[in-house]
Amino acid sequence: MDKIFLEKLKTLTILYAEDEEGIRKKISDSLRYYVKSVIEAQNGERALQLYREQKPDILFTDIMMPKLDGIELVRTIRKDDVKMPIVIITAHTDKEYLLRAVDLHLEQYIIKPINLTDLKNALQKCVDVISKNHAFVRDLPGDYSYDFDSKVLTCRDKVIKLSKKEIAFFELLIQNRHRVVTYSELQNYIWQDEIMSDDALKSLVRNIRHKFPKDYIKNLSGIGYKLNDQIP
Questions:
Q1: Spatial CA neighbour of 43 closest among 76, 83, 73
Q2: CA distances in angstroms from 101 to 41, 50, 58, 146, listed in the order given
Q3: For the domain that residue 152 is a member of, what is the CATH number?
Q4: Strands 137-140 and 108-111
Q5: Is the predicted pLDDT of residue 199 greater than 90, yes or no?
Q6: What percent of the chain shows pLDDT beyond 70?
Q7: The pairing of beta strand 13-17 with beta strand 217-220
């Protein structure tokens, strides 16, 4: 997976409906390695409720589930949403089920047992669809937003220019908002084969901080940096 593809995945939420807990947990754990979050549903009825409440970016669903099967779940969602990528993961290969799924505009129909290659291919197709429909924009504290596709930072519709290294620094902090990004990660991601000197890092952070409110980017001495989610 290339870096841009992985960056896009980290902005996405997947709703996964599967009534067999063992399978659901295993696939959900694999998906969490790539995406922002995975919402689990143990049946189609619960999946429909979670879809309406949380508006996920992608739906993965089994077919045979209690209360509401996967085909009817997708049919119901498609009445309101024809753009969301949907992937069916099922053990069924019967023509009856395949024919019922024909008009549902699925990105992929995966037969269990699923492997990592199947999962990656499905995610790639979903990302391609989302890219065609809208840009990958992340809303941030203080009325800021960042578009990963165009590499544009805005605040109240005003564009804020960032250098190449500032973009790499800021994207790394966005993708890891829940934790501190270490000095080692900054070295590997931004400077790569170059040497990251203390002066170079301080200069980069000083310049990018001028473009944000005070304390927007926090420093934990001896560890690294993170975005301050407490900014109103």
A1: 73
A2: 20, 22, 17, 36
A3: 1.10.10.10
A4: unpaired
A5: yes
A6: 91
A7: unpaired
Segments forming the whole domain that contains residue 71: 3-133
Q: Is residue 151 part of a domain?
A: yes
| 3-class DSSP string for 39-101 | EEECCHHHHHHHHHHHCCCEEEECCCCCCCCHHHHHHHHHCCCCCCCEEEEECCCCHHHHHHH
Regarding whether 16 and 127 lie in a shared domain, the answer is yes
Residue with tokens 């290969």: 93
**Would you state the pLDDT for residue 98?**
64
| Residues 154-170 as b or e (16 or more Cβ within 10 Å = b) | eeeeeeeebeebbbbbb
CA distances from 223 to 19, 174, 182, 184 (A): 42, 17, 5, 9
Of the three residues 108, 133, 158, the one that is the final residue of a domain is 133
Question: Model pTM?
Answer: 0.60
90 and 197 together in one domain: no
Give the contacts of 224 (CB within 8 A, at least 6 positions apart).
180, 181, 182, 183, 185, 186
DSSP state letter for 31:
H
Q: For the chain, what is the mean pLDDT?
A: 86
Last residue of a domain, one of 86, 117, 133: 133
Is there a single domain that holds both residue 149 and residue 99? Answer: no
